[in-house]
Hints:
By secondary structure, this protein is mainly beta. Helix content is about 10%, strand content about 40%.
Amino acid sequence: MQLVVARIGRAHGIKGEVTVEVRTDEPELRLGPGAVLATDPASAGPLTIETGRVHSGRLLLRFAGVRDRTGAEALRNTLLIADVDPDEQPEDEDEYYDHQLIDLDVVTADGEEVGRITEIAHLPTQDLFVVERPDGSEVYVPFVAEIVTAIDLDEQRAVIDPPPGLIDDRAAGDEAADGRDADGRDASVRDAEAGGTSGGEA
């Protein structure tokens, strides 16, 4: 199985390093020195990671054969793709790979249908389920034990206990009163997004 584990961002410095938007919960495994990754577009790769380091909260990578800023900039927006065994499981029984969670049905404890997980957003403070509602709108569900009470891979569903205002459809009004902004997102999610993302898959 091929999974996107990162997207290359801007060049950093003049020696070929690039910033990356991480899309895996295991960057030390998927994005470590020596890893050989396919790319999208395919013409950009495969790429072999030569070095990696964290700078100001961002992962910086240098690839074999890329020695200057021009070469690094040419890779901008390239997706990095790893081959992952579909039967592979995280070491911690309470952790899941993104591909295990994508497309799970989301329901409340009393059986109310909320929607379907379409994406896992990895923010600096926490992970979020991006859930598509039946009407096509989206809600953001923090992936924390207090809210996501159960993951049932056999039944292909995630059970949640949402706090007031997280998923109910309130009329647009005072954001401070209901914790949501004009486009329907939870205000805490909006604030977290403003701080940037660290990515996620695999």
